[in-house]
Amino acid sequence: MNTRTTHVALLLNLWLCIGAVLMLVITILAVGIPFSTIGIGLLLPALAVYFIYVEDRRQTSPEDRINNTYRTALVEQFNKPLFYTSLTAVSIYQTLTLFFAIKQSSISYVLIAVLVAQLPLIFIYTYDYSKRYPVIDSSYVAITWAVLILFPVFLSTPQQITPSTVGMFVSWFLIVFAGVESRNISDVAGDDEVDRTTVASILGPNLTKYLVWILKLSALFIIYALGGLLPTLLTVLYLLYLRFFRRITQAITPSRKYHAGDQISSRNYKS
Where are the domains of the chain? Predict the structure, then answer.
């Protein structure tokens, strides 16, 4: 695998696919569901996240050309293979959803499952609209992630909605919301250029950092109250995993701005 291919995987945040599976594992442990009941359903969050992140990156926005110039150049270079792999991922996701849904005797259950399975597609085509509103933007991302993580639990196991599942939904919402705003801190300048307002640009870097810590600590407290020490430690590991890969992506991201027609080469970009 050459340097540019590696950079595509890193800068498109495809490592979040593994993170999504870890989130589901933590949820299973905290709620107390046997792993044997979920089976291949463990793959569902990874497939959905892959599709969402690839398609979101392929739909280049004005702020992407300012805040993520190198990534935009890579996406445009590898556009066709990215399209085919995301199409494969969403196809498998829909197939697995139908596989689990038809095992249920209720037609209404099947219909609900199929409808919820369209969330990745709905998100892709509506996310740009949500960017017009600072809190709705981050909330939309957080709700989508929380649903994608909890969906396999209800789809492939007998689990019903309980205080534990609601608590895990809230926990993931808080963590993802905090993560979005944490990233928005570094994008404030570019967002201002395209008149995009975020919570980070409203509060400023320092207050946003405090908000991020409060939200993450609140989520850890909920997870500890629900599942005890093991899922809490795994959540800390998950957060460290995110931090590690974000540091890597920052290290390989050049400061030079991208212009249409620029060629990607080792002379122009840091590796």
Answer: 3-252
